[in-house]
Amino acid sequence: MLSIIEYLKKQTRGRKVKSVGMYIFHSFLFTIAIVFVLIWLLEVVFFDAFFQQIKKNQINSVLEDSKTTFNATAQGNTYTLTQEGKEKLLSLSVDSNCNVVIFAIHQTSVGEKFNIYFSSSRITEISTLDRALALLVEKLKTTDNVSMMNDTYEQSDTIIVGEKSTNADGLTMYYYVSTVITPSKYTIEILVLVLSVVTLLGIIIMLLLGGYYSKKIATPLENVAAKAKKIDVKNIDVQFSNREYKEVSELSDTLNYAIAEIKNSEQIQKDVIANVSHELRTPLTMIKSYAEMIRDLSGDNPAKREEHLKVILEETDRLEYLVSDLLDLSKLQAGTYVYEFKNFNLSQNLDKMKNFYQNKYLDVEFYFDYPNKLPVFADEKRIEQVLYNFVNNAINYGKAPKKVWVAIKKIVDKGVWRVSIKDNGVGISSSDLSTIFDRHFRANNAKRVSTGSGIGLFIVKQILTYHKFQFGVESELGKGSEFYFEIPIK
Predict the structure, then answer these.
(1) 42 secondary structure, DSSP code
(2) Considering the domain boundaries, does residue 14 fall inside one?
(3) What is residue 137's three-state secondary structure?
(4) In total, how many domains does the chain have?
(5) Predicted TM-score (pTM) of this structure
């Protein structure tokens, strides 16, 4: 059998295996790198597009706020703004970095003239402003609102929006709002500088934190792996106690449980080998001895020959029991045995057992006490095997005159049928009582019997555990034993 280290080397030979710490560190770096790339793309490459969309939404909002503020604060037929109204419109213009002009048109002897009620425009020349307003009025002749880009009378990359509306006095008011929608090169330069500093600091912090957290997360796993490498055929006395993380704690518990099961399995294997070796040696020795006796001594003596043949047949039966139980045990422990659960009347099975034992064992007194009908949902053959095993034990270990009690009682408080088989035998010592179902050998005070394999109780334990039936034994030295199991009442 390969040791853990040899097995791991064999599995990883010829291929590169990355450690957990390096994987976490690289994953951390990759994730942060993606975040920085996205930040640079959004803040530099796509900054113009975001800036333009934000400014377009902003200028439309300024236009609506300008209309609301003007209509709420303009007074009389002259539509003179109050001081509060002027301050609000000026604050709106400054805060949004927009030019705001509110005006109307009135006819004069020389033509149309713009009557400006409010202006925060940065166009200082009146003639230039008039031409810009005239262009807006021209655009608004066929529509109530308009949006223009890169107008001649404003700097490049400027958007101008305008709207006209007629008030309650029938006067048409015009609203002119403009703003720059492209950030200046200085803004971009400052943004790139800030991002460069943030990126540099981020890389340094990322390397430090990535190394710290990868080591912090990987160390408990590495400790578990280091301990696991110490496990081999000669050394399984390793305990895992790491409790730093939930998953590592669960892994430690699982490994501890696996080690305990390995130890238990090794002990079971030793017990089985010792028990089987002993059980095989005795009948084989007797078969050989009595066969030689028939050959050398009793071949011509019918009575002696019959007696010796009887011993050979009994020992052959013992071997048959042993082989059968070993096959059952191997299937049960390997989980390859298929249980066939069904509804059946256990009382009918007990009727057959009663006839069988009373006709075969004439020197044993049997006392059966069970209901006429006992519906059970279980594997019928396996439950019969449990019953036969218990009864055979009671017969084998009983004291003359042998007596066996088979009883089924209803325990209402627990909601179960208690099936018990009692004998008048030698009993079981307290030291053996707690492990009688786990051991693969008989109790220390037990005598050798003519039938049975010595591993029947362990098979019984496997069957009843699978059925989830409670079971146990009550016994005192010199007062016999009572084996029982409990079946839930349907």
Answers:
(1) I
(2) no
(3) helix
(4) 3
(5) 0.47
